[in-house]
Specification:
alpha/beta; Rossmann fold; eight-stranded mixed sheet; globular; binds NADP nicotinamide-adenine-dinucleotide phosphate; oxidoreductase; SDR_fam; NADP
Length: 250
């Protein structure tokens, strides 16, 4: 993989993946690291200064068309005419942690806007660049779109869960369905499309009680992405299994 765009890379899992990629010797040329707000992105922007030849910070708000279009032009200019984008990792997401009695239309729609419409908007915007990267057989490292979902969106597993965040779980189940439909629609394109569950991770969203540090989780995520094969296409992959790429039922 020579290029990747990660949305929501100023903190949490997104930033952890940037750190993993830049710390391991590999053939990667450009890590396009998405952030929204300069004031909340100091760590990423400092890291990008340290590795200015590889990490390219890209301002992108996944809920805004204009922001996505602007980001696409920046990425395109950096890649140049002849190269496409090898991997789009739709990582940005929100969780309003709505319990049954908290459910309201505004918050439900807002989570859906970020977690479902957001990945769709970014995908639609960057699809031409990923298409440009296609070469030969379907290969995750050559041309891919990976949506970061959650085991909490699994309808099969939901009855075993101790509590429910209605907005979040409904939105991730919808993201899963979107991705399966999209993967089927583009099955002949040789773009690799799939979903990834990062595990329960100590981020702002995951909370301090989560079992995995960001570093542990992101090491496994990178191993997992590097190991994805045809049988993992259009599936929800448990990244905590690393190179085993265990499949979580929808
Ligand atoms: N942590 C876990 O245990 C866990 C488990 C399963 C799945 N996941 C999934 O993993 C992904 C990353 O989660 P995380 O734990 O790293 O969460 P986090 O620490 O809360 O970080 C969320 C990231 O998304 C960005 N973001 C939110 N709305 C955005 C928008 N409109 N445009 C661009 N960026 C936006 C945030 O940017 P700002 O700083 O600008 O807000 C931040 O970079 C999410 O999709 C989440 O659902 C996490």
């Amino acid at each position: 993989m020579k290029s990747i765009l990660i949305t929501g890379a100023n903190r949490g899992i997104g930033l952890g993946i940037v750190k993993q990629l830049v710390s391991n010797p590999s053939s990667i040329e450009f890590i396009f690291a998405g952030y929204r707000d300069v004031n909340k992105s100091k760590e990423l922007l400092d890291l990008a200064k340290e590795h200015s030849n590889v990490i390219i910070p890209i301002q992108i708000d996944v809920s805004d068309d204009e922001s996505c279009n602007k980001a696409k032009i920046e990425v395109e200019n950096k890649l140049g005419n002849s190269r496409g984008l090898n991997c789009l990792l739709n990582n940005a997401g929100v969780n309003k942690e709505l319990k049954f009695n908290d459910i309201n239309e505004k918050d439900m729609l807002d989570t859906y806007k970020h977690n479902v419409i957001g990945p769709w908007r970014v995908t639609k915007t960057f699809l031409p660049l990923v298409e440009k990267a296609v070469s030969g057989e379907r290969n995750v490292l050559q041309a891919s779109i990976i949506n970061v979902s959650s085991g909490m969106g699994s309808v099969t597993l939901a009855p075993t869960m101790p509590f429910f965040y209605f907005d979040y779980q409904c939105s991730k189940a919808a993201l899963d369905m979107f991705t399966v439909c999209f993967a089927e629609t583009l099955a002949k394109s040789n773009i690799y499309i799939t979903l990834l569950h990062p595990g329960w991770v100590q981020t702002e969203m995951g909370g301090a009680q989560a079992p995995l540090t960001i570093e542990e989780a992101c090491k496994s995520i990178v191993e997992c992405i590097n190991s994805m094969k045809n049988e993992h296409y259009g599936k929800l992959i448990d990244a905590t299994s690393g190179s085993s790429c265990a499949i979580i039922p929808f």
